[in-house]
Each structure stands twice: as structure tokens, then as C-alpha cells.
Write a structure and sequence with these properties.
Number of strands: 7
CATH architecture: 3-Layer(aba) Sandwich
CATH superfamily: Cytidine Deaminase, domain 2
CATH topology: Cytidine Deaminase, domain 2
Helix content: 25-40%
Structural class: alpha+beta
Distance between the termini: 41 Å
Largest sheet: 7 strands, mixed
Number of domains: 1
Number of helices: 4
């Protein structure tokens, strides 16, 4: 489901994700991503992508924010997640018109958090400038996902 908004009407969680992106460490790609995870009570934890010269050791914003959320209020309380990304302009503001959605690995991590929370959490994906926004449930982003219930037949 697509929801176009103006900068002044941006969801506060998107604003937090955009602010987090300004703290990203992205010297190799030049693409800064921020993520904000909101608990049911409105508490928010944020994270940003962190690149590394050994590319595969980088950390996505969603993973960073989920880790912060686990420490701040626990994954069982996750209600919504916002992701925004783009390039940082010379003024330090986040820019970009394309909506940023979580990568496949992050979708899996978000699905795990949703299973822990017992909810089909909302994922709000935004462009760098915050003007384009898409809202989906994690079940839409990762249909037929593999979660904890899939391990019921494991030994142990």
C-alpha cells in the first residue's frame, strides 16, 4: 500500500529514521540508511548502517536498530519499524526520492522480531527526503517467511 506524504506531514517515526541515517557510516557506498523501531508504548530505538572496508562485515540499519531495541525495551514490544535512506547532501541533510525497503536479510530479522512480538508489524519505508512513504506489514515483505515455528521439528 502506497502513502505519499509531504515533508511536513511525515510520520514522526520516519523523521527519527531519517535523523538516524545522518549518523550512518557509509564511506564506501555513500548510501546512508537509518532505522527507527517503535515499541507499543511509543518508546523508540534507532540504528544506522555501518560499512566496513571488508564489505561483508558491514551492518545494516535495521539490524543495528533491532539490537538497540532489544536492549532498550525488548523485541516482544516491537510494534512498528521505519526505514529511510539516501545520500547526505552538503548541508548534512538526507536526500533521495526512491523509497528504501529492508534487504532480504533484514526482512528475516524483522520477521523474527514480529514473531517474538506476536504481531504482523508495520514496516514504514521512506525515501531519503521523506516525501515518498510506503506502509506494509512484514508478512507482505516476506511472505511464507521462515520463523521460530518452522523449527518445531528440530532435535533438542
Amino acid at each position: 500500500m502506497m502513502d505519499e506524504t509531504s515533508e511536513t506531514g511525515t510520520d514522526p517515526l520516519v523523521a527519527r529514521a531519517r535523523a538516524a541515517a545522518r549518523g550512518a557510516y557509509a564511506p564506501y557506498s555513500g548510501f546512508s540508511v537509518g532505522c527507527a523501531v517503535e515499541a507499543a508504548d511509543g518508546t523508540v530505538a534507532v540504528g544506522a548502517n555501518m560499512e566496513n572496508a571488508c564489505y561483508r562485515l558491514g551492518v545494516c540499519a535495521e539490524q543495528s536498530a533491532l539490537s538497540a531495541a532489544a536492549q532498550a525495551f525488548g523485541l516482544g514490544r516491537v510494534a512498528r519499524v521505519a526505514v529511510a535512506g539516501g545520500r547526505l547532501g552538503p548541508d548534512g541533510e538526507l536526500a533521495g526520492e526512491m523509497v528504501v525497503t529492508p534487504c532480504g536479510g533484514c526482512r528475516q530479522a524483522l520477521l523474527e522480531a514480529a514473531h517474538v512480538a506476536g504481531a504482523d508489524i508495520e514496516i514504514v519505508s521512506a525515501s531519503g527526503d521523506g516525501r515518498a512513504v510506503e506502509r506494509r506489514r512484514i508478512s507482505e515483505l516476506l511472505p511464507a517467511g521462515f520463523g521460530p515455528a518452522n523449527l518445531k521439528d528440530a532435535d533438542g
